Amino acid sequence: MIWLILSTERVRNTIITNEQGQVLYKTDTSFRLLGAHTTIIQKIKPNDDQYHMRDQFEVLGEIEWHKFTSSKFRTGGTEVETKQFIPKKGLLGRNFGRKRVFIGPDGRPYRWDLKFKVVILSRDDGSQMEVARFHRATRGIIGKKRKAMLEVSPEVAHMMDTVIMTFIYVEKLRRDKEDGAKRG
Predict the structure, then answer these.
(1) What phi and psi, each to the nearest 5 degrees, are found at residue 48?
(2) Chain segment 77-122, per-residue pLDDT in tens
(3) What phi and psi values does residue 156 have, to the nearest 5 degrees?
(4) Beta bridge partners of 100
(5) What is the pTM of this model?
(6) Residues 6 or more apart in contact with residue 70 via CB below 8 angstroms
(7) DSSP readout, 33-83?
(8) Which of 87, 102, 124, 150 has the fewest CB atoms in 10 Å of its CB?
(9) 16: nearest Cα among 126, 165, 123, 122
(10) Measured distance CA(14)–CA(6) in Å, rounded
(11) 142: which residues sit within 8 A by CB, 6+ positions away?
């Protein structure tokens, strides 16, 4: 398994590293009083010069968040509404919106399940094979203290950028539902 460590569970403003501590991705969402918030997702870029030891990043994509209309993904010069790229799946009712589906760059269907405390990515086919799972941070009161982590199967390493972008989207949605439930 590939373990990606998050500096914070707040995925719109976090740094994602590998187990060795190398920064791979970082997200930044600027605060705006009015209008849409936009999360910029950056990816580590290989250094051009072997003697240049400072990390360089390039923009992988953006998520423009909307409350009453479809949010938008922007990547590779294209823009797509989330209701088209990663629509809700399931019947109306209590669990509506707790599953989000998309077609990966490999042409296979995938499904994010938004559970109460975690999100899980599986193939949305007959196999239902789990390929990624979010593990929340623990304080170490019971068991060992650990940071939030995204566990990713090598099966989907070829589409890690898509896993990261969709993870940030669904985890933010899940977190909003959890925060709403706590408020009442």
Answers:
(1) -75, -30
(2) 999 999 999 998 876 555 556 899 999 999 999 999 998 889 999 9
(3) -115, 15
(4) 88, 112
(5) 0.90
(6) 81, 82, 83, 84
(7) SSS-EEEEEEEEE--SSTT--S-EEEEEEEEEE-SSS--EEEETTEEEEHH
(8) 87
(9) 165
(10) 6
(11) none
